[in-house]
Amino acid sequence: MLGGCAMVEKPLTPTPSSTPIIAPTAELPPQVISEAQPIMIKAAEEKRLNVAAIISQDIENHHIIYHKIKKLINDKKGTIKPFYLYRQNVSEIIEQIKTAQHQQVVAIGLAAAKSAAQLIQIPVIFCQVYNYQDHGLVNEYIKGVSLIPSVNQQLLIWKAILPDLKQVGVITGSGKQPFIESTIKNALAHNIAITSRTVSNDKEMWAEFRRLTPQVDAFWLLPDNRILSKRTLRNIINYSSKHETPLFTINGLLLPAGAVISSTQIGDDIAGKVVSRLLSIKPDNTVPGSDVEALSLAHAFVNTQATKRLNLTIPAKNITLNFERWPSPEVNATLAQ
Questions:
Q1: What is the pLDDT of residues 118-141, one digit of tens each?
Q2: Which DSSP symbol is given to 321?
Q3: What CATH number does the domain containing 207 carry?
């Protein structure tokens, strides 16, 4: 179990964040844990990893991911050295990475990814970054792993909790069209239509949300801080509760505020994708494949208070539906980390 604090009982004022809770893989069914183990790319000859890891923030999310990546790299007989942006300035870190002649870089968080981009022709794999397209972080030497838990897994959970779900609304800032188009395609396989809007700021977000809500069965709230202020987030939560529009999120801290389902990342999934991308780097240091690789897994928390209020039935847990009921003492401790 990650963390050991109990959740505070008083009402929570959620803060929009692009750093989601990571589900504790120790709590997952054995079958799911086995699926979460990374599938490494087998190169013609073994690649020895000599990695520098730049870590943005002194938060548990970033530390968990780093240690999972470290374990996988050590298992491959590689080496990894951490550099912390909250302890050193960027110029010192960049100079030390160059001096030590690290061959690859992992960047955890936006600040780390922006710093790593200064390393010319040294391959970089970033993770825990949502708005990467705003910062020129993708080129032939820099690629990423998605922040968003598996969309397919989320769709399965949504449909299990709301069997009659047909229309889901989502609003994003600019630069997310490829992701939305992919989501629309995946959703169609589950007989769900995604209705999307693109806005420029939080005022547009709030206005568009109110226009969109009557047209959909539920709303998917993504962690886009460009368009989601604390005030707008609070308004959206209150409005969705008043109008009985189920809210889906990827931030577990929004469950006490009324979100029906919160889907979270699984640390082993992120680490496996990062290390697989490191192993795929070509001899010329370019990184093949998509700009940002999608995650394969998601772990959901279902708000039993909200489902009761909306007269929804929670199905039995099984290998396909990977979720926990909230509130519960175990889940409270996880979310309070």
A1: 999 899 999 999 999 999 899 999
A2: S
A3: 3.40.50.2300
Residue 19 pLDDT class (50, 70, 90 cuts): low
Burial classification of residue 314, based on how many CB atoms lie within 10 Å of its CB (0-12 exposed, 13-18 middle, 19 or more buried): middle
**Which two three-digit tokens encode residue 33?**
């844990």
Residue where the block lists tokens 């449909």: 159
Helix (H) or strand (E) holding 194: strand 193-198
Contacts of 172 (CB under 8 A, 6+ apart): 179, 180, 196, 197, 198, 199, 222, 224, 227
Phi-psi group of 189: left, alpha or beta (phi > 0 → left; psi -120 to 50 → alpha; rest → beta): alpha
Are 147 and 18 within 8 A, CB to CB? yes
Q: DSSP letters of 11-72?
A: PP-----SSPPEE-GGGS-HHHHHHHS------SSPPPPEEEEEE--SSHHHHHHHHHHHHH
DSSP string, 143-163: EEE-SS--HHHHHHHHHHH-T
- pTM confidence score: 0.85
Is residue 205 domain-shared with residue 163, that is, in the same domain? yes
Same domain, 207 and 218: yes
Q: Which two tokens stand for residue 39?
A: 């599938």
**Residues 157, 282 within the same domain:** no
Distance of CA 119 to the CA centre of its chain: 25
* Contact call for residues 196 and 136 (beta carbons, < 8 A): no
